[in-house]
């Protein structure tokens, strides 16, 4: 990784892209500290910390959500909109056809995703304000003529505008910078949250020197967990494919072998985000309705983090979403048709339906191991760091660890590919 960065900085064009990316990320971090007039941060932070899913979203935004700043919603609405569009593209034929229309189809889907992002940003802003900020008296109503409706309308506009600005910054990184802008914003948000927590922890060393030992042991365990996650994340099953020789005119094509790589953690962190969101969603909806407050209290008491019901439901959801997302990412029938059309075959397997059946069988096995891996990851950090203080455990959440690893590996691949392209251009000149 460090060698890749050093080689990237040697190239003028890539260096400009890196510096532009850093500038945009700096703008994002500045926005995370811009306060929203009329909001009491302490009350807001107290309400957010009581919800597991919103705490996760706050970590992704670099603490902006718990602070109630301009970028409180962060990139969350855009992520949700993208996920919804992926799911709809599978079940709705017009969207499926649109997704296969090349660059023009992608532009139309991107436009629909942006519109859906606005809708989700408005809904999330209203939900957070009504459910958490307003219930904790976090809004200074005297600044809004003692009108809750006017205050909520103002906060909704501000937070929706902040979410759209974050989306715009992410798209600029993707277009003019390096790597996926959305992933980079999430990556920097998680690292910022971890950095703030570690700085506050180091400040306690003066009064209690034993805190330094706790931090050192914590860092060692984090490095070990990161190593294991990287090891599994890079693991893949390679299915060999042989292509038959074809004579066309006076030339011969094919006659070479290739592989189909199938990653164990191909679905990434998405099943975990889906699972946490599904568990937290009923609580958020019930809290919005005053008549359902008792039901919301019961739900939170039953599905509290660490209870056996919470663990069981979370495991079932992780397994279900792992297999569901695997079906979206890897279509065995389409891969089988592509292999057959190009004159390829898997040794010992007949082309067509038998190949599709074989690929689906391998995919299900790998997805099973991937689901078990994600389930272990969901609970290992809390078990390994059970001896540590709560603030240290929150430095790297379950999904935070996976996101940091996957984005770092993706960034390394992006830089290597850009360096290779520049070297080829120089060779052709």
Please explain how this structure is put together:
With 429 residues, the protein is mainly α. 72% of the residues lie in helices and 5% in strands. A hairpin with a 2-residue loop joins strand 2 (246-248) and strand 3. The longest helix has 32 residues, at 102-133. It starts with a helix and ends with a helix. The model has no long low-confidence stretch (mean pLDDT 77).
Judged by helices, strands and strand pairing, the structural class is mainly alpha
Overall mean pLDDT stands at 77
Number of strands: 5
Helical fraction? over 70%
Question: Approximately what portion of the residues adopt beta-strand conformation?
Answer: 5-15%
**Rg value:** 24 Å
Low-confidence stretches: none
What shape does the CA trace take? globular
List keywords for this structure.
single chain; 429 residues; mainly alpha; 3-stranded antiparallel sheet; two-stranded antiparallel ribbon; 5 strands; 72% helix; 5% strand; globular
């Amino acid at each position: 990784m460090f060698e890749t960065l050093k080689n990237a900085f040697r190239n003028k064009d890539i260096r400009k892209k890196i510096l532009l990316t850093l500038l945009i990320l700096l703008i994002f971090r500045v926005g995370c500290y811009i306060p929203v007039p009329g909001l009491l941060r302490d009350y807001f932070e107290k309400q957010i910390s009581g919800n597991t899913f919103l705490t996760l979203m706050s970590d992704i935004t670099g603490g902006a959500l718990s602070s109630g700043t301009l970028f409180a919603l962060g990139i969350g609405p855009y992520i949700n909109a993208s996920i919804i569009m992926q799911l709809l593209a599978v079940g709705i034929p017009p969207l499926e056809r649109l997704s296969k229309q090349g660059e023009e189809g992608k532009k139309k889907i991107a436009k629909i995703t942006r519109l859906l992002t606005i809708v989700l940003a408005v809904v999330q802003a209203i939900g957070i304000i009504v459910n958490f900020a307003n219930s904790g008296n976090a809004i200074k109503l005297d600044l809004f003529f003692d009108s809750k409706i006017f205050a909520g309308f103002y906060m909704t506009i501000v937070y929706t505008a902040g979410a759209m600005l974050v989306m715009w910054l992410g798209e600029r990184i993707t277009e003019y910078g390096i790597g996926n802008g959305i992933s980079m914003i999430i990556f920097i948000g998680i690292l910022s949250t971890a950095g703030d927590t570690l700085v506050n922890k180091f400040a306690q060393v003066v009064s209690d020197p034993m805190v330094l030992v706790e931090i050192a042991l914590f860092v060692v365990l984090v490095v070990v967990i990161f190593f294991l996650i990287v090891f599994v994340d890079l693991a893949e099953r390679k299915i060999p494919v042989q292509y038959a020789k074809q004579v066309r005119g006076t030339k011969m094509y094919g006659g070479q072998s290739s592989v189909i790589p199938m990653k164990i953690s191909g679905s990434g962190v998405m099943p975990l985000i889906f699972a946490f969101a599904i568990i937290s969603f009923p609580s958020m909806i019930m809290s919005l309705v005053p008549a359902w407050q008792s039901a919301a209290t019961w739900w939170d008491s039953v599905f509290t983090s660490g209870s056996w019901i919470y663990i069981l439901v979370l495991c079932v959801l992780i397994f279900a979403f792992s297999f569901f997302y695997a079906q979206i990412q890897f279509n065995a029938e389409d891969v089988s048709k592509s292999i057959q059309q190009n004159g390829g075959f898997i040794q010992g397997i007949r082309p067509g339906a038998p190949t599709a059946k074989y690929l689906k069988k391998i995919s299900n096995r790998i997805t099973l191991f991937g689901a078990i891996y994600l389930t272990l990851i969901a609970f290992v950090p809390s078990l390994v760091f059970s001896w540590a203080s709560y603030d240290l455990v929150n430095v790297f959440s379950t999904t935070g660890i996976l996101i940091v690893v996957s984005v770092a590996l993706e960034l390394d691949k992006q830089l290597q590919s850009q360096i290779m392209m520049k070297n080829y251009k120089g060779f052709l000149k």
